[in-house]
Design goal:
Blueprint: H1 2-13, E1 17-19, E2 29-35, H2 46-55, E3 59-64, H3 76-89, E4 96-102, H4 104-114, E5 123-127, E6 144-149, H5 157-169, E7 183-186, H6 201-206, H7 214-233, H8 236-267, H9 316-327, E8 338-345, E9 358-361, E10 375-385, E11 403-409, H10 411-417, H11 425-430, H12 435-450, H13 453-462, E12 466-468, E13 472-473, E14 476-477, E15 480-481, E16 489-492, E17 499-502, E18 504-508, E19 524-529, H14 532-540, H15 545-548
Parallel strand pairs: 2-3, 2-4, 4-5, 5-6, 6-7, 8-10, 12-17, 13-18
Antiparallel strand pairs: 1-3, 9-10, 10-11, 11-19, 14-15, 16-17, 18-19
Bound molecules: 2-acetamido-2-deoxy-beta-D-glucopyranose (NAG) (3 copies).
Amino acid sequence: MLRLLVLLLLAHADGSLFLPPLEGKQGPEIALISVQGASSPVEGYKPAAEAIQKASPFKVWVGIPQYLFDLPELQFAAKVDDILQQMEKAGMKADHKVIMGHSLGAVGCQGYIAGKGQGKMDALVLTGAAVLRKYRNSTKFPPTLTLDGDLDGLLRITRQAEAYFHQVIKVGGADAPGMDRPVVLLEGVDHWSFSSGDRPSNVKKNDIQAEVTVEEGHAMIGEVIADYMSSLFGSDAEKAAAGAKIVEAVKKTGELVEPILAAMHLEGYHNLNPPCNSDYPTNPTCQYAKYPDKSLLPPAGPPKPMPPADCTCGSDWVANTAANMVAGFEKTPASQTKLVTKDAFHDVSDVRPFHLPHIFEPQPGTACSDPATCVINATTVSMPIYDWKDDFDVGLWPITASEFRTKFKSREALQQAAGLQDVNYTATDELNTEICKSINQAAYDWALKTASSKARDRFLKHGQPYVFVEDKKSGFGITGPTWIHDALSFTPSQDKKTVAVQSHYFPLKNKNLGDVSFVQTVGYHYCKLLSPARAMEWIYVDGLKEFYGTRDDQIQIVV
Ligand SMILES: *[C@@H]1O[C@H](CO)[C@@H](O)[C@H](O)[C@H]1NC(C)=O
Ligand SMILES: *[C@@H]1O[C@H](CO)[C@@H](O)[C@H](O)[C@H]1NC(C)=O
Ligand SMILES: *[C@@H]1O[C@H](CO)[C@@H](O)[C@H](O)[C@H]1NC(C)=O
């Protein structure tokens, strides 16, 4: 019995395997190390490795080390050396070394490249993964290919879009000379398409169904990785031809992530460009007027470091769409009134100094004499809320804002400023449970309209649509208005077929056309807003998992 156990343990400890190159291949000899994901058996990576060998014109050796307990962090460097030695013993004389990792294995590869493995590899391939944010500026990486599936339910497409923005768009586009970290998305491929066999439980729980067969997926993966190696290590002619194919694939990826990046820009997503601080303007295009620019306590002082000059001023969605919906000018004599709004990102609880929305023109205490020719110049304040779990940068949880805490001037205040008479606060704001709701519906409609037709059709067929319910009024607690912590809520219906979205609002009556001290809070309407990027992320990723995921509802394993 004990003997049997020892034998089993030994067998488990060394499941590492390698594949010698296929017969009849020419050109350079490549050592390709393929690092498994967490709890993902080594054997499962064989078919994709064989597809790479088949697609490449080169003599490709593939070594797939087995890590202790299948967890690739432990003994990383030793295992890499070990499998290289095994292949050398079997006759390998590698001209180039490439390391590739899947999922947590790709995280391990990056730690290795930035540490013990620095300079040892000629290329890095990340699959079901992305270059970690902390390594975005690292100069220690060799040329790096990021290869993912658009249906990856773990390393989500929104995170891939973020990678595309930094690695491709910011460096000048797919064919810019300095672009050495291409991002390629394969359509119909999910997280597990890079491996094979049974999904580990965490993958099962979170992945989205692939829309290509296992074999099709492996062939697609094999071709891109083979092209990538040819673009780096081939003869001049091979380099040019394969390089052009990679550029093509990166451009196609740009089309796939375009709707997502558009949504992230509308949000002002913090991991594209960092948010500005309107108290210390560094981006000359913001031109945000401060209000009240006063503090009862000593001001907090400048941020360290100062935001870069291309920081994001505020949310374009709030400034250009939401604010107009709060004003509700259409179907009133102010339908021709022009509202010019600027939004800034601030913590809505910040009082050093206070940050409040304001109407600058017409000046407080005055109103336009003719609504038809009126121009209102106003500001809003928004605080996007991000899930702290995304700080781990694993792509598993939503990365876009879960809500905007946005402070608007009220409909009453804006309509009065436009010159409308007898504005009824009870109707415009106090009992108006439609304002935040209608803005959130508009964010969702925009996302549905902007998503690719393929993503939209998939979501409408298999996803959990949002339905928007009336705003709920927040009250006062011991520490003031409860609105700040009354989160935008997402409640699945009993049959899970829909998800109800509800905002809290907090209205305050106007006084003297706003001509009062800032300590008197008058003429505000606060909302919890749905970010158009969160709606987009729901359509592409999270809204699919219930009915189009890979969860096996029949087998609930309770540990
Ligand atoms: C990376 O580099 C950019 C541009 O040089 C810079 O703005 C940014 O702060 C850097 N990020 C980190 C994390 O160092
Ligand atoms: C709006 O008003 C502020 C404060 O008076 C001013 O700085 C800004 O230039 C105005 N913006 C527009 C577009 O009129
Ligand atoms: C103001 O609106 C409320 C709610 O719609 C309504 O009950 C009330 O009669 C209105 N007041 C006036 C003066 O029209």
